[in-house]
Amino acid sequence: MLLEARNLRVTYGGVHGEVRAVDGIDLSIGESEVFGLVGESGCGKSTVVKALLRLLPPSARIEADVLRFRDHDLLTLPPGRFRREVLMREIALVPQSAQNSLNPVMRAGAQIVEAIRAHSDASAAKARKRVVELFDIVGLQPELVDRYPHEFSGGMRQRAMIAMALAFEPALLVMDEPTTGLDVLVQERLLGRIREIRARVRSSILLITHDIGVIAETADRVGVMYAGQMVECAPTLSLFAAPCHPYTLGLQNAFPSILALGRELISIPGSPPDLAAPPLGCGFADRCPFALEACRVKRPPQVAIGQDRLSACIRTADIEHIRSAAVKKATWHC
Amino acid sequence: MALLSVEHLTKHFRLDRSVGAALMGRPAGWIKPVEDLSFEIAPGEILGIVGESGCGKSTTCNLIAKLLEPTSGCIRFDGEDVTNLSVAALRRYRAQVQMIFQDPFDSLNPRLRAYDLVAESPRALRLWDEAEIARRVPAMLALVGLPPERYVQRYPHQMSGGERQRVGIASALIAQPRLVIADEPVSMLDVSIRAGVMDLLRDLSVRLNFSCLYVSHDLSILTHLCDRVMVMYLGQVMEVATAHDLVNVPHHPYTRALVAAVPVPDPAYRRQTVEIKGELAKPVNPPPGCRFAPRCHLAMPVCSTTPPMRDVADRHTVACHAVAASNAQTSRTGAAQ
After folding, report:
1. Tell me, what's the ipTM?
2. Which of A38, A144, A184 to mutate to test the interface with B (most CBs of B within 10 A)?
3. Which superfamily does B4-264+273-336 belong to?
4. What is the pLDDT of residues B56-70, one digit of tens each?
């Protein structure tokens, strides 16, 4: 196992009390696996990324039973050693809005050279040679190394950021919303490029997105987050073929597909709970048409369904019935 | 008869040049976001516009809403030429054509309560007195799914994104418009509530009998919501078709690439990829002719002239020389047999 997190919790302190943005999630990513983390705004997916990369503000507190990356214990590893030994070299980030992450007054190549030299003792000439190689991997012409970011299109800037993240062929590449804000044709090229990179560099990828279509095409396994919790985790094919959590079923109903033109889209009523005052039981219970009294009393545990599948729902035994009821609009909106 | 008909609408912006460039006598550059655009919207119809950044979809909205003056061309609303309007006529027009904006977080005045946000447009348009407004605003809020007893007093920051967008819809619909221009109204919303806002718009368009021009970069949303979809590329129309035809029998090479690039929420499905050359350009000093030609694998010498819109089926028109040539050939061989 490349990355293993058990019962990961992230709490933001504040004058109005604490907000638990990530509330006890389990996450494991294997070697050369693409793990997709999907969820809506405020569900805690970006906080998970920040916790893994130690990018959280000082007001945040990370706790976990286990938080291990290869043989590093990320909970106890001192910050200096994390930066020198793990960051960039073993885990690298392609940040959200990567298109705006390049310094506009520095040439693109120079920025990547700087990053390489900050994390290794490579000479400037060697680092530059590496940048040209990296540009080739992500499909950018070598002459672009000496251009400024404003001379790049949005998709090219995104690829330059991916090139930087790949500098040391990290074991884990974390991509936070890599295609958000890109035009659909640019997105399609980038997804193709990510698949090519996977074939060339044996990195695992943690892909964060709210776009179920992108997840379906790219990820091997998917975790669905809601209100700071992992509600369902399964291999992509089985998750899409037969979701086991009412929230996943609701997302599937709400997401349009050009393959199913006549299908009526069904929204999920209500809105996510306030994490400053989280509900006692299941975070989704208030919006869930299948919720029982017991759902509101105690947080549902993760239940294993077959091999490699987990769902945090106490009604998993009734899933056949729930699935057939969930496709009807009247079930959600009465 | 069409409710809105746009004929040869064109908008060019002049690029500023430096003093030096002007003194040297260098010609000014032009941005041409909308070029010779013609289309119609029938009463009650929802027409979608899809395209990538810089394709002119927002400029088109602003031209129709009369927030921009066209360089040339003509806009007819209900048979009447509204390209040049007096101040009084413009106010009447504005009551009939309303906009819903993309960002429910930025488009609402944070210092106004929901009541005043919705009341703002009838006040500005001087439609009714306060008593009438006080009667209509709560009814409108109820219609968009916000129970007035709980929502009239709320400020935008006390509402979720979906609720804010419903306020945006209510303030667009209160003036009883006959055409609603919606510029990416759900793109900032979470997937689970998007469908609710889209349903609402569709239901209300039938109940209140308005037409809708719905702009988005997301083809899968448009095909679920719209009667017809118009595909734009760098200011020109490439293809107009029903949602079904556009997805199942796209003709234009650009539409084909666009449809093929839409991610599908089905991991077992393998999309066919349609390769197109180069990167998306900006509509700055575009060459004459079809603006997609530099990236098109079917481009021919004739593509340096602008292809006319040709009917290929009922409610399906395409602007492409290559499609026209291959259709002509098919019908010739068909006739020969």
Report:
1. 0.84
2. A184
3. P-loop containing nucleotide triphosphate hydrolases (3.40.50.300)
4. 888 999 999 999 999
